[in-house]
Design brief:
Keywords: Coiled coil, Proteasome. By secondary structure, this protein is mainly alpha-helical. Helices cover 72% and strands 2% of the residues. A 3-stranded antiparallel sheet has the order 1-3-2.
Length: 515
């Protein structure tokens, strides 16, 4: 039996080996490959339409329950849908969900590039989802128009996108529905974005100011936070720092804003405070912006901009940034000029500072940090004076002038005197003999420096704890359940007290009068 089985196996293997030779002429034709590509394309379209349908259902739940978290989930998944949008997918989505007689349907189809008679949608599916418009909400219309707006932005069709976003902003203002607040914030963002790409940013400012007042009156936190950041960006693009500071002092940023908007707001506050020479407040705002920003590749540009400004502000405060910042993968390449500036400030090398400034001046101007870097020249000189004070117990002003590459001995004497007055160095100047004499080093633990360092760290930890507590989310109407539980507990206590009283009376009667 074993031999027959092995022989059968050999025969089958031999026949199987002959089959490819016999059927070599029947190799797969290219039509099969085309079919697989079409199937993949159809599967992709079906997956995107399923995601859009899920977001449409989430918007319906948001309207029914008045819960903003469903709208947040829909907008969060829109980022993945955006990468896969095509004219065919948008055409099918519009024809599936828009009613036949809707006024905005044909306009959206034309912007996508499809006429109303070019339908690839199954008629049965279309009738089932968009029968007569009874289940079609304004949120559905705004969301589908928002998808078309994203497609126009990615295709760089800025003229059509500007026209569409103006119509959507007017429509959202006229509807005045609280369930549209988050969508309205996104629309205002792209409203300012299209105006910026068209180089008409100044024309958008009156519209944004009016929308900010309206959002404040309606207690629309999402739109209010978005428009406030857009106005600050608008002012800073034109270097209108005074107007931006007045806007920040008059307007209150909502506490319920998202982390993304909070991070942007902190970055703009850091820029304003840095220009106003308030480096401590600027550094605090920039640290909060870095902490609140998402740590992903998508936010690499924002992380680079914040860290560039934070490095310069930290240098202006007299501190040296941590070397680990320059080694991060997302920041390593973009922070090379700022690393050279940091090295020049750290060692007090004025020649290297001027060389780096001349070499990367265009980069600093593009980053809008050139003005702040010019202020670092005095810090470089102060660092050089500190290094000289630590190295020499006595040195002439002429040698200081040569080491720091100053113009005259009078300038060196003025700089050294200012450093002594600011507490940078502990030394004295002999004006008649023309030299500087350093005093002996004092133990730093006998000063207030450790106390100030501990105070700064404790304040940072306390602020972090307070912000974490504010960011906690609690279920809706949880206090009502607690009230119901408290009422039931109170009733049980009353019954228990009554039983105890009745039991005590019964025990007294049983024990008799002697007890």
């Amino acid at each position: 039996m074993v031999e027959t089985r092995s022989s059968k196996a050999k025969k089958e293997s031999a026949e199987s080996g002959k089959k490819p030779q016999d059927t070599d002429k029947e190799a797969p034709v290219p039509m099969d490959v085309e079919k697989t590509e079409e199937e993949k394309k159809a599967d992709n379209v079906a997956a995107v339409l399923a995601d859009i349908k899920q977001n449409i259902n989430l918007l319906e739940r948001a309207v029914a329950t008045l819960e903003a978290r469903f709208t947040t989930r829909a907008l969060r998944t829109t980022a993945s849908i955006r990468k896969r949008l095509t004219p065919e997918i948008l055409t099918q989505a519009i024809n599936i969900y828009f009613p036949k007689d809707h006024a905005a349907k044909d306009a959206l189809l034309k912007r996508v590039g499809k006429a109303s008679d070019e339908m690839d949608v199954d008629q049965g599916e279309q009738k089932s989802d968009a029968k007569d418009g009874r289940g079609f909400l304004p949120e559905h219309e705004v969301y589908l128009s928002y998808l078309v707006l994203l497609y126009l932005h990615d295709q760089k069709d800025y003229q059509q996108g500007m026209q569409l976003v103006i119509e959507l902003v007017d429509k959202v203002q006229a509807l005045n529905r609280r369930t549209l607040d988050q969508l309205a914030g996104r629309l205002y963002f792209y409203f300012a974005r299209f105006y910026e790409l068209a180089d008409k940013l100044a024309e958008a400012r009156p519209v944004l100011l009016a929308a900010q007042r309206t959002a404040t009156l309606r207690h629309d936190d999402d739109t209010q936070a978005t428009i406030l950041n857009l106005l600050l960006r608008n002012y800073l693009m034109f270097n209108l720092y005074d107007q931006a500071d007045k806007l920040v002092s008059k307007a209150t940023f909502p506490e319920n804003a998202s982390n993304n908007q909070m991070a942007r707001h902190m970055y703009y506050l850091g820029r304003i405070k840095a220009i106003q020479l308030d480096y401590t407040a600027s550094h605090r705002h920039l640290l909060q912006a870095v902490r609140k920003a998402p740590q992903s590749v998508a936010s690499a540009g924002f992380q680079q901009a914040v860290n560039k400004l934070a490095i310069i502000v930290q240098l202006l405060m007299g501190e040296i940034p941590d070397r680990a910042i320059f080694r991060q993968p997302m920041l390593r390449k973009s922070l090379v000029p700022y690393l050279q500036i940091t090295q020049a400030v750290r060692i007090g090398d004025l020649a290297k500072f001027q060389e780096t400034l001349a070499q990367h001046g265009a980069t600093f101007r593009a980053d809008k940090t050139f003005t702040l870097i010019l202020r670092l020249r005095h810090n470089v000189i102060k660092t050089g004076v500190r290094m000289i004070s630590l190295s020499y117990s006595r040195i002439s002003l002429r040698d200081i002038c040569l080491k720091l590459q100053l113009d005259s001995e009078e300038d060196a004497e003025y700089i050294v005197a200012k450093a002594i007055r600011d507490g940078v160095i502990d030394a004295t100047i002999d004006h008649e003999k023309g030299f500087m004499k350093s005093k002996e080093n004092v133990d730093i633990y006998s000063t207030n420096e450790p106390q100030n360092a501990f105070h700064q760290r404790i304040s940072f930890c306390l602020n972090l704890h307070n912000e974490s507590v504010k960011a906690l989310r609690f279920p809706l109407d949880i206090h009502r359940k607690e009230l119901a539980n408290a009422t039931a507990l109170r009733e049980e206590e009353r019954k228990l007290a009554k039983e105890i009283v009745d039991g005590e009376i019964g025990d007294d009667e049983d024990m008799g009068e002697d007890w």
